[in-house]
Design goal:
The structure is a homodimer of 237-residue chains. With 237 residues, chain A is an alpha/beta fold. Chain A has helices at residues 9-16, 20-25, 34-42, 65-69, 106-118, 136-141, 196-201, 219-230, and strands at residues 28-32, 49-53, 61-63, 80-85, 96-100, 123-126, 151-153, 163-167, 183-187, 204-206. The first copy, chain A, has a six-stranded parallel sheet with strand order 7-6-5-9-8-10. In chain A, helix 5 runs parallel beside helix 8 (219-230).
Chain lengths: 237, 237
Amino acid sequence: MTITSSDNPAIKELKRLQSSHARSRADVFVAEGEDLLEMAAVNGWKPERVLVREGCGLDGEEVEAELLDSLSSLGSGTRAIGIFTKTYVSEVSPGLVVHLAGLSDPGNVGTIIRSAHALGATGVSLGAETADPFGPKAVRASMGSVFAVPLHKGVAVSELPGSKVALAGGKATSVSQLPEGNLVLIVGSERAGVDAKTLELSDLIWEIPMVEGAESLNAAVAVSIALHAANRIPRNA
Amino acid sequence: MTITSSDNPAIKELKRLQSSHARSRADVFVAEGEDLLEMAAVNGWKPERVLVREGCGLDGEEVEAELLDSLSSLGSGTRAIGIFTKTYVSEVSPGLVVHLAGLSDPGNVGTIIRSAHALGATGVSLGAETADPFGPKAVRASMGSVFAVPLHKGVAVSELPGSKVALAGGKATSVSQLPEGNLVLIVGSERAGVDAKTLELSDLIWEIPMVEGAESLNAAVAVSIALHAANRIPRNA
């Protein structure tokens, strides 16, 4: 039975999730496109439901093409949309953890999760005032890595395992060398950087050498450079 | 005399530049906000004209606040908009050059220019099929670094000075060590990476080590990691 009515409960749920207010309170999120759904499957995520374009041959509840496209957040329409339960992992594995302390841009959050995955982070911890990693822009920018990297929420910085390294420039005590052992890389907001309170909880401040007159790097770029640098440092395994 | 009419030539020009088609043919571009205008001034760029909100105290032709806001590409309105002549530098300085071979996302292009500035690149070369670095999204993502980094256009890869290093993973001949001396870092399109023809022109292929199952890094992230790594390698100066 192809779904053709916008009164269908699944369609209504998807419509509701187009509002960011509804999304923030929902315990489910949407992932669009076959690449993301495959990434979910590979990593053992089971969708609550999958809606697919009628006749496209993919597994899922078939929906009239035009109706499904009207629910797509991509410009070009879509062949498959999955609904998943937002899942945070409570235990943080030591190694190479990224902590986001107030990163407000969902594209940056998603890009960092993508880098965290590619560069072997053991988890990404989402601090207060940080964009929802399960919002559509973040999920898309992550290229599906939200399904691959353990995400943590509400863990105090002091509880995260390893040396706390704040990414911040221009401080008197900044160093450009990362320590050995387990690391927690801390990045602050796009505008203000790591806040004073979090800086105080940090064991050291790591600075990326920049040319004079250059203001800063994009937050996702800075974290990714730190992750790449961290991969050259011995850790306890 | 405060400009209050949308028939004013300066206002009409700005309106026209809101269309991407008009922008691509124009030899001028728009930079919005005091931070960007200051970045331009610091780097010796002289605007064709500057429009400012009436009574704000900034230098420029005063415009009725509501009219100026209607021309803003930022959500929150603006206090100053500058119009500049698109400027490419014909001579490429050897050292650390970034070549963009078909990067279609203007946000990525701007972020790369921001990183190129911060991490000491001597220039950014824009290849065919690459997003306009002077478009509003690119200018904004660059945080004004379009005014600080020499931009080159239409220079053949073979004419760029230094070892040609393609950023690409998964090739049999990929290495994770950058060579000494002058470098040209080549990044391809977001989807397809560096095309075969450009790969052939490259002296070597540089790969960022990634975990199994991870597909890739964001293009701007990959270039920035390469720039950071290049800064640890001796160059001829």
